[in-house]
Structures are given as C-alpha cells and as structure tokens.
Design a protein that fits this description.
UDP N-Acetylglucosamine Acyltransferase, domain 1, globular, alpha/beta, 9-stranded mixed β-sheet, 1 helix, 7-stranded parallel β-sheet, about 30% strand, about 260 residues, single chain
C-alpha cells in the first residue's frame, strides 16, 4: 500500500505530464495549420471543429488541403509526412463508417510532390484506403458519382525501384491512377500504379486493377482484372427506374 504523501506526489507529477503533453499537442496543431494551407468549404481554417469527423496529422509543410463537408457516419483521416502535396475533396460526397484513410510518405531517395483529387457526389461505403504516389506524374484522380463498396485500396506509390538489367531503365515508374465517373467499385478491390478506368463501369469483387481500360460500360473482374463483358449498364437501385434514366444514382420514383 502506497503512503498517502507518495500517492499525492505521483498524482501531481502525472498531472504535470498530461498538461505538458496537451501543450505539445496544441503547439503541433498550430504549427500544422500555419505551415500548410487547409481549407474547409472554401475558407482557410486554423483549427478543426471537434464535431467534424476529420483527423489531420501533417508533419510536412507547403501542403494544400481543400475539404468540403460531407454526409454519412464515417470520416476523413489524413496522415502526411510529405511537403507540397495537394488534396482536393469535392462536394456532396457521402462517407460511411469507418471512412477514407490517406497516407503520404517519401519513398527512399524521393521527395513527394503528388496530388489527389476526389470529385463530387461520390459514395464511400466503408473503409477506403489510399497510399499516395510520390511524383507529379503519379497523381491520383477520382471523378464524380462513383460508388465504392467496403475495403477499397489504392496504392500509387512504387516504394522501391525496379529496373531492367539490360537497359538500366526503371520498370515501375509511377504513372498515376485515374477513376472516371459513374463507376461501381465492389468490395475488396485494389488499384495499383497505372490503373485507369473511364465511365459507367463495374469492377467486380476482389479485383486487382493494374492497367488501363479505355472503354466505358465494361464489367471488369479478376486478379489481374480483365474485361468480362462489354456494353453493360448498372443502377444503384434495384427496380426498373434504370429504364428511364442514364444516371445510375437516380431513382425517378423518389423524386
């Protein structure tokens, strides 16, 4: 059993430590907002409302983060260890639990200068994770009106260099990842460097997309992903409203 005096000293020391931790945290937050330009709904901010489910941990400087408020039960979680990164998150998006996780770090021997743009009216229906590329050529773009199911992974960074011994040329150059409009991405899909899809496509569950698909209205599936069917359409709603609209997110009976 501790002597009461020793217990009081221990509690006092613990309180001081907690206050120091909080001061250090407040200092890091102030530095993060001063060293980077962070916007919410078009206005630069220097702190985050605790009611918003947005968590930022930015150790670099010169980054530009453009956020808009969103619907849903999930959040946006950004962990950056880079400088001069640009992130734009559009309007009227919905994020469900747990949310979007964005990680940016410098691969060995490189300094990241990439960008990640998400358009408007997208639905993120569960965990959506992206590891950012490190080059300007490796920028990541997501368009509008897409539906992402749970456990979607986008990995744009090469991490380490692979080269051809005969030519000494790099094989795995970062070429970016692009997702167009009106796509349905099913569960457990992974997008790797060079992945590109256009519009009105369906990506099947557990697909590995690692190349470019230039056509629209495709059913794509497999690991690696291949075209399984062409000239397809899809609808968010399981009724016959698709017969009267070209917008897969529109249910004419609820208007």
């Amino acid at each position: 059993m501790k002597i009461p005096v020793l217990l009081e000293i221990e509690l006092f020391v613990r309180g001081i430590r907690n206050k120091l931790r909080q001061k250090r945290k407040n200092f890091e937050n102030r530095k993060m907002f001063l060293n980077n330009e962070i916007f919410l709904d078009g206005k630069r901010i220097f702190e985050l409302d605790e009611k918003l489910n947005i968590k930022l941990d930015i150790k670099g400087k010169g980054n530009t983060i453009n956020l808009n408020c969103f619907d849903g039960t999930g959040g946006i979680f950004i962990d950056l260890r880079v400088d001069n990164f640009i992130f734009e998150f559009g309007k009227n998006n919905t994020i469900n639990n747990p949310g979007i996780f964005i990680t940016g770090y410098n691969a060995p021997g490189s300094l990241s200068k990439s960008s990640f743009v998400i358009g408007d009216n997208n639905l993120f229906n569960g965990a959506f994770e992206i590891v950012l590329p490190t080059t300007l050529d490796g920028k990541t773009l997501i368009g509008n009106n897409n539906v992402f199911a749970r456990n979607i992974h986008i990995k744009g960074i090469s991490d380490h260099l692979i080269y051809d011994l005969a030519t000494m040329e790099q094989i795995n150059k970062e070429c970016g990842i692009q997702i167009g409009d009106n796509n349905w991405i099913c569960e457990d899909t992974v997008f790797l460097n060079k992945a590109r899809i256009t519009n009105n496509n369906v990506i099947g569950m557990r697909s590995l997309v690692n190349k470019e698909f230039r056509e629209s209205n495709l059913l794509i599936a497999g690991s690696p992903a291949k075209i399984r069917k062409t000239n397809i359409g899809w609808s968010f709603y399981v009724n016959d409203s698709y017969k009267h609209t070209n917008n897969p997110m529109e249910n004419i009976y609820n208007e």
